Structures are given as C-alpha cells and as structure tokens.
From TrEMBL:
GO terms for molecular function: calcium ion binding. It comes from the Eukaryota. Signal peptide: none annotated. Residues 120-155 form the EF-hand domain. It holds the Pfam family EF-hand_5. InterPro entries: EF-hand-dom_pair, EF_Hand_1_Ca_BS, EF_hand_dom. It comes from Patella caerulea. Keywords: Calcium. This is EF-hand domain-containing protein.
Amino acid sequence: MGGVLGFFKPELSEFQKKKLMHEFHTFFDLNKDGKLEWKDFDLARQRVCELSGWKVGTDKYMQTQEIFIEIWRKLQDDGDSNCDGVITTEEWIRMWESFNDECVKKTEKDVDAASLVPTWLEKYILYKFNLYDRTGDGVIDLEEYEYVLSDFGVPAKDARAAYLMFSENYNKKIDIEYFRILSAEYFRSNDPGALGNFITGKLTFDD
Ligand SMILES: [Ca+2]
Ligand SMILES: [Ca+2]
C-alpha cells in the first residue's frame, strides 16, 4: 500500500517490530533460547518430517534437509552481521530495517515495495504452506491451520478467529498465491488493517 502511495518509510514502526519479534520467538527460535542458530532450523526440519511422516533416507526427507540448509544459509547471509553463526533479536530487526530501506529505494521504480520479501523468505513461505497443507491438495483448510498452529502453542480459538479474518468468512481459498500475499503483508506491511497480520494466529499486537 505504501508503494502505491509512493510513501514508504525506511524505519520500522513498533507494530512492524512486534510482528517480526512474534514470528522470531514463535516460529523461528524453536529451542526458545532467544537467538537463531542452525539448531533451530534443524528442529524445524525434523518437525516437518515428523508431521508429514517422512522417514530418514526418503527423497522428501533429503529435499527438506536441503531446503532448510538453504534457508538458513541465505538468512545468515542477510542477518548475521557479525558472522558468529547466531542471529540475535537485534540482528533480526536490523536485517528487516535494512531490507525495508532497500525497498524504499525501489519504490522509485514503481515497484510495490510492501509486497517484496527476501529470497530466503520466499522459500520459507513455501515450506510453511506445505506444513499447513497436510493433505497436499493445494489449499489450507481450517482444520489443517488449527492443527499445525496448536503444535506451536497457538490456542484453537485464536487460530479459528484468525482464519475467519484472513479467509474473509471462508470466502477466500487459502492457496499458495493468497498465502504468499498474506505472508508478505505480515512481514512487511505497516497497515493495521492488512489481513495478513492474522496469518500467525495472533489476533492483536497491542500488548
Ligand atoms: Ca534458538
Ligand atoms: Ca550474529
């Protein structure tokens, strides 16, 4: 939206930072030690294989491993500014600020800057979609969404309320195209009315 109006601030708002920190703590920092390392991605990799029933040595298992190594490597390139193998919360926010800053420069070229995401995040969004889409029919339904989020500690009633919001009362199918739009809004948008704000099952960022 910012891109359309040609007005896009390089600094992140408190609202944007809260969304990013929520994502960091809930979905990325899986061992809950307050920092991101390969360990967290290795846990995510194991979790997706377990949830999907992919056994060690199968093609799916190997592919998942490659995808997670790639996501972590690219995220480290972008975010681990002191190259110590750890992404702290400060580095995480700084990475998003510099990405935001890069996007501001692109608005001059008529790009909708608010919909841009880093390349590692494109891969992460795809992983997340596949994690939710348990039956593999190309659409995330309410049951799948609720089930996967419960694994991350999100209460079922919050998951249901969030789904109702971003699916616009079940009128919109949550396919990969729509999921990508919602995810980009979550990570990038400063619009409190963006439906993508609800994609993680968190209903408010006022606290
Ligand atoms: Ca961690
Ligand atoms: Ca670091």
